[in-house]
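A note from the maintainers: we've had questions about how concatenated examples are separated. There is no special marker in the raw files; a new sequence line simply starts the next protein. For clarity in this README we add a label.
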Amino acid sequence: MICHADPEYVKYNYAGLWEKGSDGTFFCNYQQFMPEVEAKESLRKQEPELDDRYNEEEYSEEEYPDENDASDENDNYDETYNVF
């Protein structure tokens, strides 16, 4: 069956399909048809306790530069050598 996004949480009337969650309750999966940023904002408004989980997902360890890595985004190394 078709369901629609709640206008309280999103700007547009996105359509979705009912899905059964792992806890046995049904939910409207309209977020899968939304742009990623808007989908996350919608979920944050509906379930504020998920906000911490999304922050962790958005900034994984891979996105932080290694302190010991002197390369720039093009993998060019800026090293200085002292010659005596």
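[label: protein 2]
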Amino acid sequence: MCHHRKTIYQCNHVVVDPSPLRACKARRNYESGLSPEPCDVVETHGLSNLKVPRLCPPCHDKKSSLDSQLVRVKSLIADLKRELSESYGKCVSHMDDAGLESEKKQNNSSSKSEEATAVEADSAKVDPDEIMEKIGPIEIDPIEEFLRKKKQESDAHLMMISDYR
């Protein structure tokens, strides 16, 4: 058993040095011509191991190529965001020129109309189901809806539904 030096990189890849630090008796006999076969057993020892605080060459190349791709993608995304904001500004200006309301104005007017229908319902004593049909579906968080239904079940007192924040 010949003792070889082992290099351990930061990425945990290992390279064993092909030349032995100390040749065993079988290898010395082969080198002197006394034995027909060399020693094929490679062994390392903890004292001869070398830890290197860097990546092995293949991992270093891979990381540098991925880093360059990431930089390129980030710059592309930044350019696309800038173009999107510019085109959105142009769309809003075109809508204003055409006399149409933008999204923000439509959202404000729709919330005001919902409040107005709620006030009308209180004053006219109209059926709430009819008002809901006029307003349209209200977006409900599916998780909250699930928990609400679970709390209404007959065995809800046995469940531990709580907010663990």
